[in-house]
From TrEMBL:
Residues that, per the record, bind Mg(2+): 9, 386
UniProt KW keywords: ATP-binding, Cytoplasm, Kinase, Magnesium, Metal-binding, Nucleotide-binding, Transferase
Official protein name in the record: Acetate kinase
Major subcellular location class: cytoplasm
UniProt cross-references to HAMAP family, sorted A to Z: Acetate_kinase
Cofactor field: Mg(2+); Mn(2+)
GO biological process, one term: acetyl-CoA biosynthetic process
Protein residues bound to ATP: 16, 209-213, 284-286, 332-336
Organism lineage string: Bacteria, Bacillati, Bacillota, Erysipelotrichia, Erysipelotrichales
Length: 402
């Protein structure tokens, strides 16, 4: 039975969406609404079979108005005949804590837990709830489901998620490594298994989701073994505006020296650090590389730190798992920045990684094997598709309930 399913990724000022015909996995429409709450909000939608995206600028005061615009567009462009055609909606949630190891229907309990976990993902979980409540009002008869970025990592062994602080903080406050981008890493793992025609439980790979936010995962026998992000999405490698892993005493030092509040430090580490903080130029790697090519010393330093952090993580996971079959690059930087990929792979030659420049340069946003046939470790570029994973889970939950 074919049905219409929506995948939704709501932020505090944005709403991304894809509309699928399932189980055929046909994308009927996709798009995003940006700058929600402003007079110059941007609504964009791309329709099946059309190469051009339809965009317009208009005032969208809140998520309810954004959802209304979206629903009107789906009917106007005949994606659906009526809103009742939309049978299921999957909502991306960044933090599910230890409560969720898989996608679940939205009910009073699951919604309360997502709200409880807002303190662990203050930039993300509140937006997901706002999106849910707006869409649930517009689509009251649809099956609404949560898909969690942390769920994929519930297979990690204790040694890889317990922090070396007093154990009581894990028992009492659930402080542990949770990770993020799990929906993306799950897709990359299963997609590589499909491409190579291997059972997913025989795959040992290192997946690199390198975007504005970034995480690297060791996948052993098809399951998450360790992830670079930690208790919150602030941990791990250097990111666009996030610092990643630093000496925790730096936080104490800055609080004592400058009398920063917790909120001020949170802003510094989450929004003013990373590529932006070191370069002083931009949180966008493209801008950093351009400035680096022009000889800007801080841009050159930023580039070097970023590559070094990625190499360190990949090499560490290779050793931790006792080897790996493949490395996968994905997300904005991983999919589109051939310079970063080449530099990282060149520094991994000690692991037997061989990526000829001719295999890598000018490859953007498409599935491609980048390594040579004699490379000890395969290297792949695979565009991520979190929306498809969410739609698959929402379809499964809907059909299981029928």
């Amino acid at each position: 039975m074919s049905i219409i399913v929506m995948s939704v990724n709501a932020g505090s000022t944005s709403l991304k969406f894809q509309v699928f015909q399932m189980p055929e996995e046909i994308v009927l429409a996709s798009g995003n609404i940006e700058r929600i709450g402003m007079e110059d909000s941007i609504f964009g939608i791309k329709l099946k079979g059309k190469s051009e995206k339809i965009s317009k600028v208009l005032p969208i005061k809140d998520h309810s108005v954004a959802v209304e615009e979206l629903m009107n567009a789906l009917i106007e462009h005949k994606i659906v005949n009526s809103l009742a055609d939309i049978k299921a909606v999957g909502h991306r949630v960044v933090h599910g804590g230890e409560y969720f190891s898989h996608s679940v229907p939205v009910d009073e309990w699951s919604e309360s837990k997502v709200e409880e976990l807002c303190e662990l993902a203050p930039l993300h979980n509140p937006g997901a709830l706002v999106g849910l409540r707006s869409l649930r009002k517009a689509l009251p008869n649809a099956e609404h489901c949560f898909s969690f970025d942390t769920a994929f990592f519930q297979t990690m062994p204790e040694e890889n998620f317990i922090y070396p602080i007093p154990y009581e903080y894990y028992e009492k406050d659930h402080i542990r490594r949770y990770g993020a981008h799990g929906i993306s890493h799950e897709y990359l793992t299963k997609r590589l298994a499909e491409i190579e025609g291997k059972p997913v439980d025989q795959m040992n790979i290192i997946t690199c989701h390198l975007g504005g936010g970034a995480s690297i995962v060791a996948v052993r026998n098809g399951k998450a073994f360790k992830v670079s992000m930690g208790f919150t999405p602030l941990g791990g490698i250097m990111m666009g505006t996030r610092c990643g892993d630093i000496d925790p005493a730096i936080v104490v030092y800055l609080m004592r020296k400058y009398h920063y509040t917790a909120e001020e430090l949170d802003t510094i580490l989450n929004k003013k650090s990373g590529l932006l903080g070191v370069s002083g130029i931009s949180s966008d790697m493209r801008d950093v590389i351009e400035a680096s090519a022009q000889g800007n010393p801080r841009a050159i330093l930023t580039f070097s730190i970023y590559v070094s952090r990625v190499v360190e993580q990949i090499a560490g996971y290779y050793g931790l798992m006792g080897g790996a079959d493949a490395i996968v690059f994905s997300a904005g930087v991983g999919e589109n920045n051939d310079i970063i990929r080449q530099e990282v792979c060149d520094r991994l030659k000690c692991m037997g990684v061989k990526v000829p420049a001719d295999n890598n340069f000018y490859i953007r946003g498409e599935e491609a094997k980048l390594s040579s046939d004699d490379s000890k470790v395969d290297v792949w570029l695979i565009p991520t598709n979190e929306e498809l994973v969410i739609a698959r889970d929402a379809y499964k939950i809907y059909t299981n309930g029928k």
